[in-house]
Every structure is written in C-alpha cells, then in structure tokens.
Amino acid sequence: MNTRGREVAFRRILVALDASTPSLAALDAAAAVAAKWEAELLGLFVEDINLLQLAALPFTREVGFPSAIQRPIEPQDIERRLRAQARLSKQALARVAGRFNLRWSFRTERGQIVTQLLEVAREADLIVLGLRGRKVAGRMPRGAIGQALMSAASQSLLLMPEDMRIEPPLLVIYDGTPSSRQALAVALRQAQDGLIVLLAA
C-alpha cells in the first residue's frame, strides 16, 4: 500500500471496476477495508475513449476465438459491451456493499482510464485497483495503469493481484519512514488475527 506523508483516515474508497476477475477481487478487498474504516465505497467504470476511437476506424477488425474468423468492429457493438460491463460492475458493487452493509455509489465516466481515475480519486482517500497476472521472479505484477497511478496519485493506493485476498496475517515492512508508519497504522486497524512487522536493518 502506498501512503503519502499524512495521517490515515479512509472515509471514501475508490475502486476501479470493469467486471473482470481482477477488478472483482479488488472490489472484495476494498469492501473489507471499507468495513473496517466505516468508509463509503465509490465504484468507477471508465469507458475507454481509446477503445471507442479505435472501433471507429474503418480498418479495425476483431478475430474470434477459437474460430479465428475476422470481422469488422462496429462502434455500436463496443458501446453496447461497455454498457453491459458497467451494468455488471454496478451490480457487483451493490451485492458486495450489501454483504458488508456499506454506503456506496457508482459512476461511469468516458475518457482516458488513468486520467479519469485520477480525476475521480480527488474525492477519495484510497484507490483500489485489481491487477491481472502472477508473480514473476518473486515480484508482483503492476501493469501500466498501476504504474501510472503509483507515479501520479496523491492518495493511498492498494494494488490487489487477482489471486490474493486481504486476510490475516498481514505483513508490513517497517523502515521508520512516514509512509511505513502509515502503512503500519493501516495494517494494525485492518488486522484481526495477526500482524507481522518486518523491521528494516
């Protein structure tokens, strides 16, 4: 978790949703954190403007799987798919928020994904983003969106790999920096059954 030099108090948690497995894992994690902090969940679905612009090009094709049949991409098909993903994302948010008895809201924005996330994140204290992929050489995947948010977001950031959950014991690496103190404070509040603190030598 990335924290930036201030006291931690999560009142509103932004979770990026797209109905994918990683985003649903991130939603579960965001709800678990929101329940501990009595925070509101804000779900955001971004209609990717790059995808819509690509679909409008006359030479764009999609290849079916497993048939390998090529067919033109119709912009209205992409619009319909995006609306369906947004609807599924909102339903998932409502279901998970209901399970945790959380206040929640949902927004759909159109634009560049990172730009929209950063814009809406101004209203939040924590951003939760699901990550696709597995560890490589002991390192967690970060993805382009995760990397961009790590560089640009002023809010705390939780990147959740799709195959992980927030469960005890929690592990915090503490090196005495303000960020590590804040991460420790968050972990102490989040932990129920166990917290492991590694002290940097």
Could you characterize what this model shows?
Keywords: Signal. Pfam families: Usp. Residues 10-159 form the UspA domain. It is a single chain. The protein has 201 residues and is α/β, with parallel strands linked by helices. It has two domains: 12-164, HUPs (Rossmann fold, 3-Layer(aba) Sandwich), CATH 3.40.50; 167-201, no CATH class. It is built from six helices and nine strands; from the N terminus they run βαβαββαβαβαββαβ. It has helices at residues 21-37, 49-55, 75-100, 113-121, 143-152, 178-190; strands at residues 12-16, 40-48, 61-63, 70-72, 104-111, 126-131, 156-161, 170-174, 195-199. It has a five-stranded parallel sheet with strand order 5-2-1-6-7, sandwiched between helices. A two-stranded antiparallel sheet has the order 3-4. β1, α1 and β2 form a beta-alpha-beta unit. α1 runs parallel beside α3 (75-100) and α4 (113-121) packs across α5. The radius of gyration is 18 Å and the shape is elongated.
Radius of gyration: 18 Å
Number of helices: 6
Give the overall shape: elongated
Largest sheet: 5 strands, parallel
* Strand content range: 15-25%
| Biggest β-sheet: strands ordered side by side in the sheet | 5-2-1-6-7
Number of domains: 2
* Series of secondary-structure elements, N-terminal to C-terminal: EHEHEEHEHEHEEHE
Q: Compute the separation of the termini in Å.
A: 21 Å
Return the CATH architecture of the largest domain: 3-Layer(aba) Sandwich
CATH fold-level topology of the largest domain: Rossmann fold
The CATH fourth-level homologous superfamily of the largest domain:
HUPs
Instruction: Please bin the fraction of helical residues.
Output: 40-55%
Mind telling me the CATH class of the largest domain?
Answer: Alpha Beta
Overall pLDDT: 85
Number of strands: 9
Unreliable residue runs? none
* Class inferred from helices and paired strands: alpha/beta
Keywords: Signal
InterPro entries: Universal_stress_UspA, UspA
Domain UspA: 10-159
Signal peptide: 1-25
